[in-house]
Amino acid sequence: xxxxxxxxxxxxxxxxxxxxxxxxxxxxxxxxxxxxxxxxxxxxxxxxxxxxxxxxxxxxxxxxxxxxxxxxxxxxxxxxxxxxxxxxxxxxxxxxxxxxxxxxxxxxxxxxxxxxxxxxxxxxxxxxxxxxxxxxxxxxxxxxxxxxxxxxxxxxxxxxxxxxxxxxxxxxxxxxxxxxxxxxxxxxxxxxxxxxxxxxxxxxxxxxxxxxxxxxxxxxxxxxxxxxxxxxxxxxxxxxxxx
Length: 243
Ligand code: MG
Fold this sequence. Notes:
Elements (H helix, E strand, L loop, with lengths): L1 H21 L30 E4 L7 E3 L8 E3 L2 E3 L7 E3 L6 E8 L12 E5 L3 E5 L34 E8 L2 E2 L5 E3 L2 E6 L2 E8 L21 E2 L7 E9 L1
Antiparallel strand pairs: 1-15, 2-5, 3-4, 4-15, 5-14, 6-9, 6-15, 7-8, 7-14, 9-12, 10-11, 12-13
């Protein structure tokens, strides 16, 4: 009986091998025609791609408000807007989650010795990508331009000198939380600064804190926020794509 079982198993094995040999892969077996990606027309020069939400096109702050919901009182002039010291942080009226963000910023040319060029891009109002005059001013490595403030330092310092426009191109993946509010998947961020990769799929550890360790507090979609740190940092050409 045992001998017949072994023969049967061998026959089955041989049959499977024969069946496998009969299948011949063709190019079309791995060519998928369904679910074509949507068409997006790339922007020319500094113009945004066709599916982007334009958050500032040089004209007004209609997409923005004070972080308390009041009027955004930063100064719009010459195609850009600038922090007004003491006017407070501003944030978008729209809410965002995971996104691609393009934002250009400039520290005043006369900044040397008169300010630190400190501002910041707060993803979802909570996680600060630092803006700072790291061309001139030494600071702790996880606190200068391109850092996730007090959490992660940039791979390199790609700063231009004050007075020159700089660019952050950001890919941001929002954190995910369980029903009890605990973080399941932390936020992640990739940043290209002036064409140079400075953060590569970096994990964000939680809310930005000046004192103490970062920690997550559950949230959904939230505004993008720009920091008034008292320095006259300017912004222009801001657009965002939902991911
Ligand atoms: Mg800052």
